[in-house]
Design goal:
With about 110 residues, this protein is an all-alpha fold. It has seven helices and no strands.
C-alpha cells in the first residue's frame, strides 16, 4: 500500500518570490536571464504555485534573498516547539539546560 504524502503548497512561495522580485525592481525577464530559465516558468511558479526544481528553488531564494525558514517553518513551528527542540539538542549534548543557554545568549 502506498503511503499518503502531503505535498507542500508552493503558492505562498510563488507570491514571496514575486514580491521579492518586484521589491528589487527586477522583471521576470531579468530574473530568467540571471538563472537561465524561461520567463514563463517564473510566471508559473509565481502565479500558479508550480513546484520548482531544487536548483531553481535555490537560485530564486539566493538571488532574491527570500527567507527559506520563513517560507517553510513559520506556519508549522511555534516558539514553544522551537524552544523544546533547542532544549532537547542542548540537553542531549550535555552542555547545559535551555535556560542556561538563553541566559548566556542574553548576557
Amino acid at each position: 500500500m502506498k503511503r499518503k504524502i502531503d505535498k507542500y503548497d508552493f503558492e505562498a512561495f510563488g507570491q514571496a518570490i514575486k514580491a521579492a522580485r518586484k521589491a528589487k525592481g527586477l522583471s521576470r525577464n531579468e530574473v530568467a536571464s540571471k538563472i537561465n530559465i524561461a520567463p514563463r516558468y517564473i510566471a508559473s511558479i509565481e502565479n500558479s504555485g508550480q513546484h520548482p526544481s531544487l536548483q531553481i528553488f535555490y537560485e530564486h531564494v539566493t538571488l532574491l534573498d527570500v527567507s527559506v525558514d520563513q517560507r517553510f517553518l513559520a506556519s508549522s513551528l511555534s516558539l514553544e516547539s522551537v524552544q523544546n527542540s533547542l532544549s532537547s539538542i542542548v540537553s542531549l549534548k550535555g552542555i547545559f539546560t535551555f535556560n542556561t543557554f538563553v541566559w548566556n545568549m542574553i548576557r
